[in-house]
């Protein structure tokens, strides 16, 4: 495949001579340039996303796509903004994955297995088939975090599911009909509210903000003209790449105020 830049900002660049490949979008055959993502291929043939698209960067989980490949019996799932089209791909969009979502007051819940059992009892139906892990576009060990919850290990579930983008592909595949992304969100909330050690430095910073120790910086900014603001922005200091732990900005008056 030729090496070139396909995108620039939100524009798709299709260099002349790019090979066209056939794909089936919701049953209709189209020719699209090879190398495009599914999202860009859909737009190339005239579809406009009004739902099922958010970040365009593999973060929001809104663009779940189901597809089959030529000669492959398996059903595949992927993010439209991250998956590249392939010849004879048969695809369709899933704009929304319906899932039961428990409502609760996190402050009144106990971070234990009984809370999980009460709010998401289907979690305990896990068959350990690992289908959810194979479906996850974020390469999260989904079965492992469900199994951790079954054992009442909220912390492990919260840590393992940290990068979940709530796309729902795991739930679509699960034979036990578990709502992985919602139960994992509950685990992360329980962990953050009841189990995680308090961040002392954060408490200190909130206290400093309440004591208005940073207000002078905001006032200084608010009193700048637009031209001064632009100049400051253009002349701002950059942290070095790679990160240097000994680096300090030349201007030190904005550095963290310690008590
Ligand atoms: S797909 Fe469902 S049943 Fe299978 S391991 Fe994952 S959670 Fe368990
Ligand atoms: S755990 Fe499930 S909802 Fe979360 S990113 Fe993976 S497949 Fe999507
Ligand atoms: S649009 Fe956000 S993950 Fe694809």
UniProtKB/TrEMBL annotation:
CDD domains: fer2. The keyword Iron-sulfur applies. The keyword Iron applies. Pfam families: Fer2, Fer4_20. One of its GO terms (molecular function) is metal ion binding. PROSITE patterns: 2FE2S_FER_1, 2FE2S_FER_2, 4FE4S_FER_1, 4FE4S_FER_2. Residues 117-146 form the 4Fe-4S ferredoxin-type domain. Keywords: Iron, Iron-sulfur, Metal-binding. Residues 19-97 form the 2Fe-2S ferredoxin-type domain. InterPro entries: 2Fe-2S_ferredoxin-like_sf, 2Fe-2S_ferredoxin-type, 2Fe2S_fd_BS, 4Fe4S_Fe-S-bd, 4Fe4S_Fe_S_CS, DPD_II, Helical_ferredxn. This is 4Fe-4S ferredoxin. It comes from Desulfofervidus auxilii.
């Amino acid at each position: 495949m030729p090496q070139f830049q396909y995108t620039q900002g939100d524009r798709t660049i299709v260099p002349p001579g790019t090979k066209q490949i056939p794909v089936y979008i919701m049953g209709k055959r189209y020719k699209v340039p090879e190398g495009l993502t599914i999202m860009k291929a859909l737009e190339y043939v005239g579809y406009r996303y009004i739902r099922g698209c958010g970040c365009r960067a593999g973060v929001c989980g809104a663009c779940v796509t189901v597809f089959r490949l030529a000669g492959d019996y398996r059903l595949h799932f992927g993010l439209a903004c991250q998956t590249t089209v392939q010849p004879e791909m048969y695809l369709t969009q899933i704009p929304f994955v319906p899932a039961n979502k428990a409502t609760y007051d996190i402050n009144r819940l106990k971070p234990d297995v009984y809370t999980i059992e009460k709010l998401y009892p289907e979690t305990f139906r896990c068959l350990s088939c690992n289908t959810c892990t194979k479906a996850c576009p974020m390469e999260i060990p989904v079965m492992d975090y469900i199994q951790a919850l079954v054992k009442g290990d909220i912390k492990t579930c919260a840590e393992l599911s940290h990068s979940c983008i709530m796309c729902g592909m795991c739930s679509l595949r699960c034979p036990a009909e578990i709502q992985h992304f919602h139960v994992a969100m509950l685990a992360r909330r329980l962990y953050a509210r009841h189990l995680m050690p308090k961040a002392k430095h954060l408490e200190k910073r909130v206290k400093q903000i309440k004591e208005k120790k940073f207000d002078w910086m905001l006032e200084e900014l608010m009193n700048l003209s637009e031209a001064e603001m632009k100049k400051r922005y253009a002349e701002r200091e950059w942290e070095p790449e790679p990160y240097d732990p000994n680096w300090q900005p030349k201007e030190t008056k904005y550095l963290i105020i310690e008590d």
